[in-house]
Design a protein that fits this description.
This protein has 230 residues and is of the alpha/beta class. The protein has one domain: Aldolase class I (TIM Barrel). It is 39% helix and 18% strand. The protein binds ligand LARABZUK.
């Protein structure tokens, strides 16, 4: 059973070399975004399955998807060989229930998208969905593009802190995180885990080893610091 404690996830993998580099750098979870709403996939489903098969046991692959039908989600998870799925779209309670019944072995992370001032709605969703998910991930909505993920933008961390405090399930923080701000974000929000995508990329859009290693070091230091706080 996953507890997502001190999870350090990086999303968006281009190839095996990139995946192995991130595993060696200490990333605990690698997100494979497939069947997306706005952005293009980095690699095909067949290529993703091949990369996942090469991962060391210390690195857990996660399917990140906007799929909303339980059957399609389970099918894709089995093709890829993942045990965790991050649902980033608007899945209904009925489909979530079906997912849990049909694939109880899958751990489910569900997104809570911060759109300005919608904390009341997010608190209600978190309380309603908690029995059907293993963790929540807060992320940022981009008004300009309509994207709910991989925006490179931070949101109001007070909202994520509120959700981390009141959610019955662990909260993972995403949205605009990088080596420069992940420590502060962890200390302010007190999440179980963190996720980054664009913040650890270089100008060529590839994951930058220096930035990945700095992100992991900063996140680990902040999680250690959190333990010492009252
Ligand atoms: O949501 C997407 O379209 C997406 C596309 C590619 C990779 C990840 C995606 N979403 C979910 C995530 O977990 C991202 O890592 C998260 O949105 C953080 O992205 P960033 O703000 O760029 O660090």
């Amino acid at each position: 059973m996953q507890d997502f404690k001190n999870m350090i996830q990086i999303a968006g993998v281009r190839d095996a070399a990139e995946a192995l580099m991130m595993g060696d750098a200490g990333v605990t979870h690698l997100g494979f975004p497939l069947r997306l709403a706005v952005h293009r996939e980095d690699l095909s489903e067949r290529e993703a399955a091949a990369v996942i098969a090469l991962l060391k046991p210390s690195v857990e692959p996660v399917l990140i998807t906007y799929l909303q039908k339980a059957d399609s989600i389970v099918r894709l998870c089995r093709i890829l060989g993942v045990r965790i799925v991050q649902l980033h779209g608007n899945i209904s309670i009925t489909e979530l229930l079906r997912l849990r019944q049909n694939a109880p072995e899958l751990a489910v992370i569900k997104s809570l998208i911060v759109r300005g001032n919608n904390q009341k709605e997010l608190i209600a969703t978190a309380s309603c969905d908690a029995r059907l998910v293993d963790a929540f991930i807060t992320d940022t909505w981009d008004q300009q593009t309509g994207a709910c993920g991989a925006t490179g933008k931070v949101h109001d961390w007070k909202i994520s802190r509120l959700l981390a405090d009141c959610s019955p399930k662990p909260l993972i923080l995403a949205g605009g995180l990088g080596p420069e701000n992940v420590r502060q974000a962890i200390l302010e929000v007190r999440p179980a885990g963190v996720d980054s995508h664009t913040g650890v990329e270089g100008p060529d859009g590839r994951k930058d080893e220096g930035r990945v290693r700095a992100f992991v070091a900063e996140a680990r230091a902040a999680f250690r610091e959190l333990k010492r706080l009252p």
